[in-house]
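Deliverable D5.2: sample structural annotation.
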Amino acid sequence: MAERGETPLPLFPAAERAIQRLWAEGRIATPARAASGAVVEILEPGRWNRLGGPDFLGAELRVDGARVRGDVEIDLRSSGWREHGHGRDPAFRGVILHAVLLGPAEPVRTCQGAAPEVIELLPLLPEDLEGAAEHDALLELRGRDAEIGRLVREGNPDLERDLRRRARERFDAKAGALARRLGADGWAATCHRAALEAMGHGGNRAPMAALGLSHDAAAFATADPSRLYLEQTGRWRLHGVRPAGHPHRRLETYAELCRARPDWPERLARWLGEAARGRGARAGLSDGVLGGALPVSLADTLATDALLPLGGAELRETWLEWPAGLRPDDLEAARGRLGMAGRARNWQVQGMLHTLGRGGKG
């Protein structure tokens, strides 16, 4: 989960749909303070409307303690209300909430003169916007590896060069966000929280991040994973999750790591130093740092999502060439369609994800 204010900008085409999906899944964290000063809480997100009119119909909110029902419109900025003509359109007369990604959250009026509440979504997102857009794109393209291959090919005329460029952008964003966390929280806490978020790969980063904030690594070493799992009831994404990727199993795995290697952040610091000098072998990470507690593919995911970016720019090339970790079957099939033979390298997968998250754009 990105730190607040770290969402990649400028905005890209897939962003608005990704936010709509987060809203539809009930993953926007409220209550929130509206521009009017009212406290707004989402009770029911409403029905996702993919046709004309407001984005969500029949939503139920609690506004300053009172239940209200009506429609919700989501825009990237407050100016979207005016630019799209919603204030003149009778289809939007039932809107009770205008939710905008970026502030300032400015007052708006419907054609009947009503003033919907207006909230800013950026501080309420459960994950960074680019990650949400990538996940949304993969859901939209599920079972369509040929289409994924086409989008990646069209968005990257010089395939390897362009995918490497995109992957470097992703590394720099990850490393920059983690550097800011290090300055605020210190090494051990940042390692713990970043690792837990990576363990949520596959749609469960937000609840894992919440557990990382409420329980330190020492607590994980003695905690009952079932109790930790129950603390986030209602927030886990379980549809389509394989047994090995179930969040309860991931919590058991991380608790095992914390018991077997309570000093794993200190071991990691030493290993990263060796890796920066070209001596950090993959086995040294999975066995020496992580104590063999993680399956190889999950250890690679942890390395690429969190641990290698903690080492900063000196490890960018190591990160690019690292074996790709867990990835959707459709992405792997598309990699084959693009002529990428052999073991998947991280730059290939990261570049493809960047392409899909940006809707094939730059």
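Annotation notes: The two ends are 23 Å apart (CA to CA). DSSP finds 16 helices and seven strands in the chain.
The annotation will be released with the project's public dataset once the embargo ends.
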